[in-house]
Amino acid sequence: GGARVYPLEAYRFAFFVCVLFVLGAALVAFLVKETRAQNIYHLLGKRYER
Domain residues of the chain, as ranges? Predict the structure, then answer.
């Protein structure tokens, strides 16, 4: 038993993955259209009709 000891590179890689997720979330947040609390569901239906 006992606690596992991970190498420094493992912590750096895990932190790098966290940074990638934060940057990805920020990018998605900038791409989301602001609707000012208006319901746009009916507009999305026309946009995605086939």
Answer: 8-47
In whole angstroms, how large is the CA radius of gyration of the chain? 21
CA dihedral of residues 10, 23, 38, 41 (deg, nearest 10): -70
Rounded CA separation 41/14 (Å): 38
Tens digit of pLDDT at every position of the chain (50 positions) = 899 999 999 999 999 999 999 999 999 999 998 888 888 888 877 666 65
Of 37, 36, 33, give the one whose Cα is nearest residue 47: 33
Question: Two tokens at 13?
Answer: 């890689």
